[in-house]
Amino acid sequence: MKTIGIRELKENLSRCMKKVKTGEKIIVTDRKKEIAVIMPLEKKAKEEKIYQLIQRGAACWSGGKPAGMKKRIVSRGRSVSSAVIEDRR
Question: What is the pLDDT of residues 1-38, one digit of tens each?
């Protein structure tokens, strides 16, 4: 298991994530104190959680892309885009 400091992790995040994808675990330290472990998710565990959600009825999937909202949300007053533009000024 590799140990890496926060600053080094921020500088080399892409490289570290590639290592994690290959199965390596990385310990993250802050001033030489271990604070986190980055490790790959096991596919089986991920899939089991998804199937559990589907079985409970908390999630469903028909196999395609998610459909958009069938009904548009109507709001009164200014549009959201005009509020965002004003906020950016």
Answer: 899 999 999 999 999 999 998 889 999 999 999 999 99
* Per-residue tokens: 39: 């490790």
State the pTM of this model: 0.48
Coil, helix or strand for 27?
A: strand
- Domains of the chain in start order, with CATH, are 1-61 (3.40.1620.10)
What percent of the residues of the chain are helix, what percent strand, and what percent coil, each to the nearest 5?
A: 45, 15, 40
Rounded to a whole number of angstroms, the CA Rg of the chain reads 22
